[in-house]
Amino acid sequence: MDLNVLWFILIAVLFAGFFFLEGFDYGVGILLPFLGKNDDERRVIVNTIGPFWDGNEVWLLTAGGAMFAAFPQWYATMFSGFYLALALVLIALILRGVAFEFRRKDERATWRGGWDWAIFIGSLLPALLFGVAFGNLLRGVPIDASKNYAGDFFFLLNPYALLTGLYGLVLMTLHGAVYLSLKTDGELSARARRIASTLWLPALVLLFAALAASYGATDMYSKLGVNPGPIPILGGVALLSVIWFLRRQRDGWAFVMTGITLVTTVMTIFMTLFPRVMISTLNPDWSLTIYNASSSPYTLTVMTFIALVFVPIVLVYQGWTYYVFRQRVSRKSLAS
Amino acid sequence: MDALFLARLQFAVTTVYHFFFVPLTLGLSILVAIMQTIYFRTGDEAWKKHTEFWGKLFLINFAMGVVTGIVQEFQFGMNWSEYSRFVGDIFGAPLAIEALLAFFLESTFLGVWFFGWDKLSKRVHLAAIWLVAIASNLSALWILLANSFMQQPVGYTLRNGRAEMTDFFALATNPNIWTQYPHVLFSGVVTAGFFVLGVSAWHLARKSNPDFFRRAFQVAALYASIGAVMVILVGHSQAQHMVQNQPMKMAAAEALYQSQDPASFSLLTIGDLSGRKEVFAIRIPDLLSLLAYNQFTGEVKGINDLQAEYVKQYGPGDYAPPIPLIYWSFRGMVGAGFLMAFLALVALYFVLRNNVEGSRLLLRVLPWAILLPYLANTTGWLMTELGRAPWIVFGLMKIDQAVSPASVVSGVSVLITLVLFTLLYGALMAVTVYLLRRYARVDPDIETAPVGAY
Lengths: 336, 454
Fold this sequence. Notes:
heterodimer, A: 336 residues, B: 454 residues, mainly alpha, two-stranded antiparallel sheet, two-stranded antiparallel ribbon, 15 helices
C-alpha cells in the first residue's frame, strides 16, 4: 500500500470519526429547542455534550488540515469550488461555538432563547450541508483541465445532493436523539427515545432513497458491484436494528448502531470515490485522484510518521474524557 | 468588484479579528495555570477564587478565539486556492500538525478543566489547565512556523510547478521562528498582564474587594513587566533578522528611501501622496544602524535601491509595500510597546513599595491601557504581513498570483462572505465586550454562578 492510499484512508477515518462524534453534537443541537421544555431541561441537554463538542469539532479541522497537507489540490479545488456553501458552514460553526459558552452567561429568557436558536441553526446547517457536499462528491462536479471547479453555488443544490443532505441531517438528528436518551434520565430520556423512534423510519427511508438515487446519479454500483461487501450492508442492518434496541430501551446499543450507520456511510462514500477524491463530470481524466492531487512522497512520509505517533495518543485521551464524564446528566447533577 | 482586493480585505478582517483573541488566550492560560498551581501548592482558597474569576474571563475570550480560528483553517483553500496549490506540500503540514498535536489537546482538556472541577483529583485537574496552556502556545508555534515559511522560505525546492518540501527539520527550525515565536509568546504575556492589571486597577480604584484585586495586581504587574521587557528585547533581535532577510520591510517601516550608512531613525516622516517620496522628515542620526547592527555604522538599504535590486533579480515590477501603512503600523507597535513597558514597570514599582493603591492616576489609567496590547498586536501583524507585499511567499510567489481564480470565486461571492463575516464578527464583538465587562466588574465574593457546568 502506498502512502497516497494510506492518507486517503486516514482522511476517511477522520471524517468517519467526525460524523460519529460531532454527528450526535449536531443532533443534540437540532433537538435542543424542541426537546427541552424549560430552561432546566435545556441546560441538561446542552451539558450532555458540554465537555465533548469542542474536541469533537477538531476532527473536522484535522480532516481539513490533513487534506491540505496530503492532497493540497483537493483542498484547493473543493474549498474554492464550494465557496459559499463552506462559508455558510463556517458561519454556522462560529455561531454555534460561542452560543454554548455565551448562553449560560445571562439568565434572561430572551438571551438564552436566542442562543438556543443559534445552536439550532448552527447545528442544522452543517448537518445538512455536509451531506450535500458529500452527495456532490459522489455525483461528480464540473472540474476543468486546470483542476478548477467550473460550476456555481446553485449547481451544488441538485436533487441528489439535497437528498443525501437530508439523509445526513435526519441520521445525525436520530444519532443525537439516541445519545440524549443515553445521557439523560427520567422523563427527558424517555422523550428523547420517543423522538428517536419517530425519526428512525424517515432515516431508513432516506437511506434507501439515497441508495436508489445513487444508482442513476453515481457510479457506486459499478464501483462496488452487485454485492457491495460487508461495510455498506452492515450500515443498512445497523440502522434497521436501531428500532429493536430502542423498543427495549437498550439505548447504548441503539447508539452504537446509529454510530455504525454513520461510519459505514462515510466508508461507503470513500470506497466509491477511491482512488478519486473529486470526480469531474466534464472529463474523467480531469478528476482529482489520490495521485494527481497529492503532496510529494517526502511530505507524505513525514506526515505519516507524525500521524502514526499522534493519532493513537489523541484517541486515548479523548476516550478517557468520555470515561470521566460517563455519567448521565440530570437536573440534580447540575444543581449540586 | 476586484476579487483580489476583496479577498485581501477579507483575510485582513478575519485574521486581525482572530488575533484579537489569540494573545489573551496564550498569556492568560499560563497565568490562570500559575494561579491554580499556587492554589494546589498552598491550599489557599483565595487562589482558587482567582483561578475561577480569571478563568471565567479566559473562557469567554477562548471561545471567540476557537471559533474564529475555524475560518483560518479553511480560507486558504477558499480564497487562496492558487497559493494552496503552490505551497500546499509545505504549508499544509504545519496546519495539520497544529490540529493533531495542539488543537485536539487544547479543546479536549479545556472541556476536562471546565467540567472537571468536582470529577477529578486536584492534581489531574491542575494538569488539565497546564495542558490547555501548553497546547495553546504549541498551537501558536506551528501556525507561526507556517507563517515563517512565507517570511523566509526554507527546506524546499521548486519542482512540478510548485514548492515541495525537502527538509522538514529545516522547516521546523526556520531561522525566522527563533525571534517571531518568542515575540508572539511574550506579547501574549503582556496582553494577559495588562488585562489583569486593568481589571484589578478598576476594582482597586473603587475599593471593591481590595484584598482580592491587590493580589491579582501584584501578580499581573510582574507578569506584564517580564512580558513587556522581553517583547522589546526579542523585537530588537527580530528587527535585526528582518534587516538581513526582508530589508524592504525594514526600509518601509522606517520610510527610508535612500540607503544610508550610518542610517538614521525616523521620528516623523511625511511622504508625498504616492507614498513613494519623502517630503519632510525628522530623523535621529545613527540610531537605525545601532538598532540594525548594535553599532553606530552599517548600511541600511533604502526603498529605492532595494527596488532597483529586486527588478534586477525578479524582473520588472513594483517591489515596495504600502509604505505609509507600514511606517505607521511600526510606530503604533513600537510606541504602544514602550508605553506598556513604562506602565508595567511603574505598576511593579508600586507593588515593590507594597503600596499598590498609591497612585490614583495609575489606577485610572490602567483600565484604558488594556487596549494598548491590542493596538500593538494588530499593528505588529499588519506590518509583518503588509510589509512582505507584493510577496505572499517572499521571493517565490506574489499575492496577485495566489488568489483563487475569479472564474471559481467571483468578486461578488467574496463580497457576500466579506459582508457576512463582518456583520457577524461585529455583532459578536459587541457581545464579547459586553460579557467581558460585565463579568470583569463582578465582585468575586458575590458571584455565585455555577462552575463546572453550562
